[in-house]
Structures are given as C-alpha cells and as structure tokens.
Amino acid sequence: ELYNHEVVLDLVGRGSRRPSSDGPGLAQADDRAAVDAWLDEALALGPVMLGAINRLDPDFSADRARMLWLLQHLKEKHLVVIEGGGVPGDVTCEVAAAIGLPCLRAASTLENTDDPQRLRNQLDDIPKLAQVQGDVIVVAHAHPLVAAAITTARTTLAAADVQLVPLSVVAADIGGASR
User: Fold this and answer.
1) What contacts 106, CB < 8 A, 6 or more positions away?
2) Which of 21, 35, 38, 99 is the most exposed place for a label (fewest CB within 10 A)?
C-alpha cells in the first residue's frame, strides 16, 4: 500500500483525448459558475483530496481569468496545484503564485499502462531528472502495475539517492494541504 492512496484530482478538459479523461471535464468556454460546479462535484468524489494536477487543454491552461477562478476554488479548499507540464503558455503556477496558492511542477508522470518495460524506463529516468533538476515531482497513477513497479524500484531509486515522499509531506512543507 503506497502512502494510503493519497488522492489528487486530475483536471482534464472536456473532450480530452487523455486516457484518464473518462468523464466530462472543463471547457475553455465554461463560465465561473460551471467551473465552480465542476470542481465541487469532482472534489466530492474523493475521500480526501490533497491537490489537483492541471492537465487541461492548452486553451484553458493559458486563460488567466479561468485559471484564476479554478485556482481560487482550490485555494479555498486548502489544496495544492500541480502543473502537469508540457503545455505551451500554461499559466498555472504564475496565477497560483499571484494568489498565494502552492504550485508544484510535475517533471514526469508514471503512466497508467500495462507495459512493465515502459514503467521501468520511466522509473529509470527519475534519477536522471533529479540530477538535473534537484527536487523532482513525479505523478503516479493509482494502477496496480504502477504501484508494483514503484515498490520494485524503491531499492534502485534509494541507491541513486532518490527519496520517495508522499504528496502530503511536500504539501505540508510548502504550506498546502496537511491532511
């Protein structure tokens, strides 16, 4: 059992082609009431949400007004936000800093895949990222194969001076959720 199943809300866009986008998401055209309603509904699904990862579509992620609505809502709930990375023009951490919301940048994501070699390759990249960047945030999906791969890789990661830390510890260190 990895860290008691700490939960992070996956913020996805409506019609997103991402594999984790099973249900309706947010759209760039949504008004503030729609954004707030979507967040309230999504946050009610999990027992204890620690934060949210922004994997929204580029149009939404670059829209300062809509990101402000979304991030203010997360701040009211005492959550942290994780910038998903790789989206040109993403203003998540910039807007979060302006309102005092803790924001982390994900360097990598352990994908929800059934390919053990792909997971091993992703885990092998973590020490390389840590050497270049120092602290590295890696988001792992709650998938049995991902959990097993992390458990198997713990010794190798520790030998490379990579410490696995749950989000709750990181969030508490930066003034976010402490649950």
Assistant:
1) 53, 82, 83, 84, 85, 137, 138, 139
2) 99
3-state SS of the chain?
CCHHHCEEEEEEECCCCCCCCCCCCECCCCCHHHHHHHHHHHHCCCCCEEEEEEECCHHHHCCHHHHHHHHHHHHHCCCEEEECCCCCCCCHHHHHHHHCCCEEEEEEEECCCCCHHHHHHHHHHHHHHHHHHCCCEEEECCCHHHHHHHHHHHHHHHHCCCCCCCHHHHHHHCCCCCC
Give me the pLDDT at residue 15, please.
53
41-79 pLDDT tens trace: 888 876 667 778 777 888 888 899 989 999 999 899 888
